[in-house]
Amino acid sequence: MSLLLDFDLDFDDYRRRYARLARPNLLQDAAYGRAMARAQGLQPRWGLLRDGNDELAVVQVLERHALAGLLGAVVLDRGPLWLPGVADRAHAPAFFRAFDRRWPRRPGRRRRILPELPHGDETSALLHAAGCRAAGDLPYATYIVSVDDAAECRRRLLPRWRQVLDRAHAAMADGRLHLDWPQPLARLPDLLRRHLAHREAVGYRGPAQAELNRLLLDYAKAGSLLIGEARAGDSEQPCALIALLCHGRGATYQIAWNSEAGRRLGANNALLWSALELLRERGIAHLDLGGHSAIHTPGLMRYKAGLGGQEWILAGMHD
After folding, report:
1. Per DSSP, what are the bridge partners of residue 22?
2. Looking at the 3D structure of the chain, how many domains does it have?
3. What pTM, to 2 d.p., does this model score?
4. pLDDT of 27-37, one tens digit each?
């Protein structure tokens, strides 16, 4: 077997292959790469792993150079992504060896590698043999919700989450709660303002404001941003807001804001449940609820678990 890792795909070539993936993630979307180029100066490189004429995997790598290449950064987040019918475990060692040959560890180069591989001893040994070194003790974890029929989704809900959803639906039935999915560009500034203010108030660390602004604006302009709004009673002001980014056959729950009234009414649960129906209509198969930590954000982890998705625990950060 003679595997080649080439970075000669353009934006459209990569997107065509990405559209075929069963479980694409946001961080490997070419539109995400372009947003990071604008926000952080990281340039996306779109690669293809081949075995002869057989295409095995696609990967997006972000890189930045300074001082004529003496200093630089290389970022591989949640890749590579294996094309349909390819056994990832069989080819992962060769991919990471090829990656290490192209971007070896050296003084002045910062590497950040978050592989789309399961956490465990086998993966650790594979990455170590390919020249990748663990850069933290915590794995990366997220929940993936299959966006199938409503009855199956409801069956998977955990009891507490279902109870809050039922309370929200009762409030909707008697006019105490209203949901809407407005034009995203019109609601984006208000959502960002409220989300960032709440984040600062509670001391939650998240993406930099410039990065978040660029990401949401780019997806909104491409028609790939969904913003859900909940209002209490006759109020013209929202009591909860959520934003989801659509990418290929997947979507990602990106940010949210919730007021005290929204929490009492179960507004966020109602918005997420409504979002599943919108995603089905778009032909999207999976919703990624985003990273969580049992140590740092246990409440958020429990909330996301309630939607009944499958927990994915990945290998965590390497360099």
Report:
1. none
2. 2
3. 0.94
4. 999 999 999 99
Tell me the residue range of the domain where 70 lies: 3-133
Model pLDDT for residues 248-286, shown as the tens digit of each residue: 999 999 999 999 999 999 999 999 999 999 999 999 999
- CA-wise closest residue to 115 among 106, 99, 195: 99
The C-alpha atoms of residue 243 and residue 163 are separated, in whole angstroms, by 23
Are 117 and 152 in the same domain? no
For residue 135, what are the CA distances in angstroms to 99, 108, 208, 263? 17, 17, 22, 37
CATH no. for residue 19? 3.40.630.30
